[in-house]
């Protein structure tokens, strides 16, 4: 069952969030698909806060929480984002999820760092929370890291990993979305 809450301001109703009742995680995960067309409806701060909070409770290596997140929602910010990726899809909201090279955990014996993994888990939490709230998203890796660093004035220690573009969906899943390998192809038991 879908729940819609509307808040009326002086101009038009604003959808705050939409929530499916009694949805278990697998149902929620199946509901997610990459959305590349968005309605021109702004996303409320309440929704942004909930999505950020879902990222906040993500696990990170050694609980170092090296993530840094830039919320891009002003017209100016969204214009700047267009200089950094062609995969902006005119979304009304984007999160640039980065990690701090000085904060992430490093494995002592080979120096492998956890930054990409930590940022990806944070982003995944955020993406799933967005899905629960009826907000569509796409994970964007096709961006120019140096452009992000320059345009958003990131210091050298901050590494962008993923841009999540988000908004109210104006598209159904493409048919390839349902192409999934059989478990038997890649799962083994020992
Ligand atoms: C690591 C990663 C990078 C991705 N980069 C892009 C991207 O740059 N542009 C884009 O349009 N979609 C991107 N996607 C979305 C994938 O194309 C999409 O998840 C995949 O085709 C499966 O479709 P679905 O999300 O609808 O299930 C990326 C997804 C992941 C997980």
Describe this structure in words.
This protein is α+β, with helices and mostly antiparallel strands and 190 residues long. The protein is built from six helices and six strands, in the order ββααβαβαβαβα. Strand 1 and strand 2 form a beta hairpin. The protein has one domain (34-172): NADH Oxidase (3-Layer(aba) Sandwich), CATH 3.40.109.10. The strands form two sheets. It has a four-stranded antiparallel beta sheet with strand order 3-4-6-5, with helices on both faces. It has a two-stranded antiparallel ribbon with strand order 1-2. The structure holds flavin mononucleotide. Flavin mononucleotide is lined by residues 33-34, 87, 138-142, 173, 177.
**Shape by Cα distribution:** globular
- CATH-level-4 superfamily name: NADH Oxidase
> Number of folding domains?
1
Chemical compounds bound to the protein = flavin mononucleotide
CATH top level assignment? Alpha Beta
The proportion of residues in beta strands is 15-25%
**Helix proportion:** 25-40%
CATH topology annotation:
NADH Oxidase
What is the β-strand count?
6
* Helix/sheet category: alpha+beta
Rg result: 18 Å
Low-confidence stretches: 1-13
Main beta sheet: 4 strands, antiparallel
In DSSP terms (H or I, runs of 4 or more residues), the helix count works out at 6
N- to C-terminal distance: 41 Å
Helix-strand pattern: EEHHEHEHEHEH
**Average predicted local confidence, pLDDT:** 92
Identify the strand order in the major beta sheet. Answer: 3-4-6-5
Per CATH, which architecture? 3-Layer(aba) Sandwich
């Amino acid at each position: 069952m879908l729940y819609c809450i509307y808040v009326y301001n002086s101009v038009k109703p604003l959808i705050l969030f939409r929530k499916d009742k009694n949805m278990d995680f697998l149902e929620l995960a199946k509901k997610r698909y990459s959305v590349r067309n968005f309605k021109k409806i702004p996303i409320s701060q309440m929704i942004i806060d909930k999505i950020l909070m879902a990222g906040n409770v993500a696990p990170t290596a050694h609980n170092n929480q090296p993530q840094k997140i830039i919320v891009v929602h002003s017209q100016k910010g969204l214009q700047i984002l267009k200089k950094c990726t062609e995969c902006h899809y005119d979304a009304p909201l984007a999160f640039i999820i980065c990690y701090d090279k000085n904060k992430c955990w490093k494995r002592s014996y080979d120096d492998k760092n956890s930054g990409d993994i930590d940022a990806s888990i944070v982003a995944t939490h955020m993406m799933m929370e967005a899905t629960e709230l009826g907000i569509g998203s796409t994970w964007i890796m096709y961006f120019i890291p140096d452009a992000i660093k320059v345009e958003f004035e990131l210091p050298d220690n901050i590494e962008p990993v993923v841009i999540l573009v988000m908004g109210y969906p104006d598209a159904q899943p493409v048919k390839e979305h349902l192409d999934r390998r059989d478990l038997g192809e890649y799962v083994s038991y020992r």
